[in-house]
Amino acid sequence: MKNLQDTVNLTNGVKMPWLGLGVFKVEEGQILVDAVSSAIKNGYRSIDTAAIYGNEAGVGEGIKKGMQEAGVAREDLFITSKVWTDDLGYEETLKAYEVSLEKLGLDYLDLYLIHWPKEGKYKEAWRALETLYKAGKVRAIGVSNFQIHHLEELMKDAEMKPMINQIELHPRLTQKELIAYCVSLGIQVEAWSPLMQGQLLDQPELVEIATKYQKSVAQVIIRWDLQNGIVTIPKSVKEHRIIENGNVFDFTLTKEEMDKIDALNMDQRVGPDPDNFDF
Q: What are the residue boundaries of the NADP-dependent oxidoreductase domain, all occurrences included (predicted)?
């Protein structure tokens, strides 16, 4: 991994950037458009959104603006969206995909995910994702917030394995067992909320490592993700922070430092528990 355009090969050979921009909780409007376009302008190629974020139209505008300003072609970008729990089901998911595509103003998505493993619903939704994939409407398909037992259940009837499992992952929630399981099946793990929504920025162990490399704590965490083989999508709307988050390719954490960060794990979530959510 040498720069923001470096990619990992998913099981179907599609190349996905290791590092992207997340836009969770960023409302429609100029701030969002500018964040997405400035990310593209500054070398990012991966943008991650979701139907429930209510900001796909703004993300689409930002993509268009960024492509123009950076002289980047659509095929150089990697755009992800996710189907919400209300739209899980075969026909419903197919329809939700078209709605997302229209809002984004795109002809296809690079990655489409089932956002949460809603019991009794996600298998039919997965069948829809397989249909979209076989029709060439999406380049890769996957899931989000799936535990081992969800993946096992999904694959009992699935024609193809998810290519991605996007999960909450940060130094307080390292999810080692789930990662090992995904790796054993060739499912690429992707981290959401890698910075734990800013809660780790004054963690002494991380501050110490950051000081050593003259980096920010956020950069240290992003680097830890990458060295663990995890795709990551830190969120920011400030251009200087977006640039900073992408500037993580000029240092390498030692094994001791990686272990020290792993040791911060407390199985502590900032988001809902995939085994106990009510939406």
A: 33-265
Vertex 64, ends 58 and 68: CA angle to 5°? 145
Q: Is 78 helix (H, G, I), strand (E, B) or coil?
A: strand
Radius of gyration for the alpha carbons in the chain, expressed in angstroms and rounded: 18
Confidence (pTM): 0.97
DSSP structural state of residue 161 = -
Tokens of 74: 């659509």
Domains recognised in the chain with CATH numbers: 7-199+230-235 (3.20.20.100)
The answer on whether 115 is annotated among ligand-binding residues is: yes
Structure tokens at 40: 């593209």
Q: Is 44 a catalytic residue?
A: no
169/138 Cα distance (integer angstroms): 25
Asked whether 233 and 111 are in contact (CB, 8 A), the reply is no
Residue identified by tokens 């960024």 is 66
The answer to whether the beta carbons of residues 82 and 114 sit under 8 Å apart is: yes
3-state class of 162 per DSSP? coil
Q: How many CA atoms lie within 13 A of 78 on its CB side?
A: 26
Q: Which residue has the tokens 């997340």?
A: 22
How many other C-beta atoms can be found within 10 angstroms of the C-beta atom of residue 28? 15
- Per-residue pLDDT of the chain (279 residues), as tens digits, is 889 999 999 999 999 999 999 999 888 899 999 999 999 999 999 999 999 999 999 999 999 999 999 999 999 999 999 999 999 999 999 999 999 999 999 999 999 999 999 999 999 999 999 999 999 999 999 999 999 999 999 999 999 999 999 999 999 999 999 999 999 999 999 999 999 999 999 999 999 999 999 999 999 999 999 999 999 999 999 999 999 999 999 999 999 999 999 999 999 999 999 999 999
Q: Choose among 102, 139, 96, 100: nearest CA to 121.
A: 96
